[in-house]
Amino acid sequence: MEVQNARRWAPRGKQAWLAVAAALAIASGVRLLLHPLIGPFMPGTAFCIAASLVEYYFGLAPALTVMLLGLGIADYLFVPPYATIDVFDREDVILLVSYPLVTLLVIVLLERLRRAQFRAELIASVAQSRYEMLLRHDNERMLARRAVDETHRLLRHLSHHHRTFILIQALERNALHQADDIKLQGTLPRLPNEIAPGPRFAEVHPEDIQRLSNALWPGGHRVRLRNGDGRSRLTECVCERFTTHAGDFLVLRIGT
User: Fold this and answer.
1) Where is the signal peptide (predicted)?
2) Are residues 165 and 206 in the same domain?
3) 219 Cβ contact list (under 8 Å, min separation 6)
4) How many CA atoms lie within 13 A of 8 on its CB side?
5) Is residue 138 in some structural domain?
6) What pTM was computed for the model?
7) Domain tally for the chain?
8) Which residues lie closer than 8 Å to 61 by C-beta, 6 or more apart?
9) Rounded Cα distance, 145 and 245, in Å
10) Is 86 in the same domain as 39?
């Protein structure tokens, strides 16, 4: 995978150049402290380390700046004759060859490693996003399959209990959750009364029809049904919930 933004891993702004100034100041200070002990030996080592650290945290341009400015400071302060630019001898040539060569090698390797690291992080982030998308699609597919299975179960239920079927009520998606909350508080829930009558609907007492249209939820119910002689008797009924792709439904039938 080609990642164009891998070259832009380093932070930008004033912070990088403040780090350049701080790295040069610290490297110069450390080298000045060590100068009485080591003299002109390895004059550019501190600046090479500073350039490498700046490269790791802030990128190529600030590191090259530290390298070039560090080369001038090291040649001026730590290569004899000190604090003069009139003399150009063998020590100056050694510094001008060895210091940039070693520092550039380290900087280039660090730059490649940082770009590879940033590229791997970008690819991992893209892979994580795609994985989450696949999970959402799988969840949606499972919900759709569950809704289809529930629809088939509803149809089988209606055909099997056709002779005991009283009514079916369509609900909003969150209606039953609201009903459960209200039941816990001790009051009767009021649900949307979109009711489709069944074969036994006409036998139900009108007061029970009114009560069921306002307070129907899954579970057992006692309903007054008229007999052939016109009298009413209490009958145990069962209400079941079905969640389909078209919505939620409550089906009330005579218990068997």
Assistant:
1) none
2) yes
3) 238, 239
4) 6
5) no
6) 0.55
7) 2
8) 16
9) 9
10) yes
Note down the domain range covering 196.
161-254
Mark whether 85 and 23 lie in a shared domain: yes
CA distances from 106 to 45, 49, 119 (A): 12, 9, 20
- Token pair for residue 99? 């210091």
**Is 133 within the bounds of a domain?**
no
